[in-house]
Specification:
- The complex is a heterodimer.
- By secondary structure, chain A is mainly alpha-helical.
- Chain A has one domain.
- Chain A has ten helices and no strands.
- In chain A, helix 2 crosses helix 5, helix 3 packs across helix 9 and helix 6 runs parallel beside helix 10.
- The longest helix of chain A is centred in the N-terminal third of the chain and has 32 residues.
- Chain A starts with a helix and ends in a 6-residue tail after the last helix.
- Chain B has two domains: about 220 residues, P-loop containing nucleotide triphosphate hydrolases (Rossmann fold); about 70 residues, Alpha-Beta Plaits, CATH 3.30.70.
- Chain B is α/β, with parallel strands linked by helices.
- The chains are: A mainly alpha, B alpha/beta.
- At the A-B interface, helix 1 and helix 4 of A face helix 2 and helix 3 of B.
Chain lengths: ~250, ~300
């Protein structure tokens, strides 16, 4: 195991985050705060409790999910796309490292950033609403697993993308709608039966539901199923990344 | 002595069918400076990229210090440093950070002293904390060399290292390359500046259309393929070369005031003494003479044209 390489990649990526602290941390915190102001305070004050939870508190897990999914994808896709764009990828390809070490460096750093952002948003939310975390360990487990999974997904996206448009199109056209329709701002049980069934085909529903359960012991689907979905997605992404490195897809000619 | 790089029957066919390398076999000796010459699109960069692991081979084998580049990629890649032809740099980073990153990436523990030594040897020390985007093209080229040397490679690939670099910087880089060779590093150099190979290389390989057409010691190559010529400035210009000098195949310049004689230094008798005697007999006087030898560039162009 090339530990020095993992450390070098991880440190460089974390330094990049600190260099772009406004973009990396302040921006997601600010946008989440705005969600609280609009949905929590302005609109939320007119919405009754959902399953005994105040609306402001109800949306906290969903908003954290929204941020960590988009940030994980954004961070890791950019981390691997930018060297491809500038040509510095040659160094990574000619280095004595395996795909596992590359992933531990890039995905590890992207996931770390996401977890930090998730915790900062949680802290920010606590200024607006009272939050109880029923299962903090499971909450952290979901937070870490989802950060890692979506960082892996972002890595795949960054390898696949051959232009800036492709890099942004998936988060905007796929992830964002799925997250908004995945129960961030409402419970699936509030929807008409037909839409409830359709929603179950949205994988993000399971992520938000499981994460929310760790806070309030309240979920749209069983927490075991949510955990299974997260692990399944993680496995799929790992297989895809393994294949990318084995075949050299979009990396080696 | 076992070659440090051994390439056997290497072929590369890209998607789309373009065959960049055709059964290339080549050995690079430990500690030498090897000049790989060839016109654009000859396959130089593909060859380097395969050895470094950036491009996958189609068939054939490559070993580095006895290790296979596929099965033992950690062993082979950790021994190699690469300075690519383009100038890909981490725009927002500093020379110090990128050199430190490269060292770690290639599995070496931190060694600020070594990074300092490398940056100083490349005159980058004063610029170590400046953003790379603020550096000139020549400085960026030095940063790439610093990155390649940061992990103390045994083999250094320099793909067009002085392209777009001014004369002074080129001389500096030649000096760096020579000192690397003195420290035991094997250097493989591709260049469009044949003068560069003439100055630096111990051996020269010529590649064209994906095939190695010649590998030879530079001095021997210049001796065997190079020709010398003797140019005489005549006191009285001639209209034609007198028939009694036909054996010497002399060339008369358009002005009629210059005679050129080609000779081969490998032969026991160059014919110069006889020619001078024949000129005296023919009553042809000259007021100056000079000799010159064909450059590596002329030899290279001749070889490539001959192969085409």
């Amino acid at each position: 195991m090339n530990l020095h390489a993992i450390k070098a990649i991880y440190r460089t990526e974390m330094t990049r985050m600190m260099r772009t602290v406004v973009q990396s941390i302040v921006a997601p915190v600010l946008s989440t705060s705005l969600y609280f102001v609009i949905f929590g305070a302005a609109i939320g004050s007119r919405i009754t409790e959902i399953d005994g939870i105040s609306y402001g508190a109800f949306i906290v897990p969903g908003l954290i999910m929204l941020s960590i999914m988009t940030e994980s994808i954004s961070n890791s896709s950019f981390a691997i796309y930018f060297p491809k764009f500038t040509g510095t990828i040659f160094e990574l390809l000619s280095a004595p490292i395996s795909f596992v070490e590359v992933l531990l460096g890039y995905v590890g750093a992207a996931a770390t950033k996401s977890v930090i952002i998730g915790l900062i948003i949680l802290g920010t939310a606590s200024f607006f609403v009272t939050i109880d975390i029923a299962h903090p360990v499971i909450m952290m487990l979901f937070l870490v697993l989802i950060s890692v999974s979506f960082s892996l997904f972002g890595f795949i996206l960054g390898v696949w993308a051959d232009g800036w448009e492709k890099l942004t199109i998936v988060p905007i056209l796929v992830i964002m709608p799925l997250t908004f329709l995945g129960g961030t701002f409402y419970s699936i049980s509030m929807l008409p039966p037909a839409w409830q069934t359709i929603s179950l085909f949205n994988p993000v529903v399971y992520l938000i539901s499981g994460f929310r359960w760790s806070f309030y012991e309240n979920s749209d689907v069983a927490v075991a199923i949510s955990l299974g979905m997260v692990l399944g997605f993680l496995l799929l992404c790992l297989i895809a990344v393994w294949w990318i490195f084995k075949s050299g897809y979009k990396l080696r000619s | 002595m076992q070659p440090i790089i051994s390439i056997k029957g290497l072929t590369k066919t890209y998607e789309g069918g373009f065959q960049a390398l055709k059964e290339v076999s080549l050995d690079i000796n430990r500690g030498e400076i090897f000049g790989l010459l060839g016109p654009n699109g000859a396959g130089k960069t593909t060859l380097i990229n395969i050895v470094c692991g950036i491009v996958t081979k189609t068939t054939g084998s490559v070993t580095v210090d006895g290790f296979d580049i596929v099965d033992d990629y950690r062993q082979t890649r950790s021994r190699i440093g690469l300075v690519p032809q383009e100038l890909p740099t981490e725009t927002f980073e500093t020379p110090w950070n990128v050199a430190r990153f490269s060292r770690g990436l290639f599995g070496k523990p931190e060694n600020p002293g070594h990074i300092e030594k490398v940056l100083k040897s490349l005159s980058l020390w004063e610029k170590r904390n400046e953003k790379i985007m603020m550096l000139s093209g020549g400085m960026k080229r030095r940063v790439l060399i610093a990155k390649a040397l940061a992990h103390e490679p045994e083999i250094l690939f320099l793909d067009e290292p002085t392209a777009g670099v001014d004369v002074e910087l080129r001389q500096d880089m030649w000096s760096v390359v020579r000192s690397l060779r003195e420290s035991g590093v094997t250097v493989i150099l591709t260049t469009h500046y044949i003068e560069e190979a003439e100055q630096l290389a111990d051996r020269v390989g010529v590649i064209n259309h994906g095939k190695i057409i010649l590998v030879e010691e530079k001095n021997r190559l210049m001796r065997e393929f190079g020709k010398k010529q003797l140019v005489l400035q005549l006191t009285d210009c001639l209209a034609v070369v007198p028939p009694e000098l036909d054996d010497y195949e002399l060339e008369l310049s358009e002005s009629g005031c210059e005679l050129t004689y080609h000779y081969d230094t490998k032969q026991d008798h160059t014919g110069i003494t006889a020619l001078l005697a024949a000129l005296r007999t023919a009553g042809i006087k000259f007021n100056d003479l000079s000799t010159s030898q064909s450059s590596l560039e002329e030899i290279f162009v001749g070889l490539v044209n001959q192969e085409a």
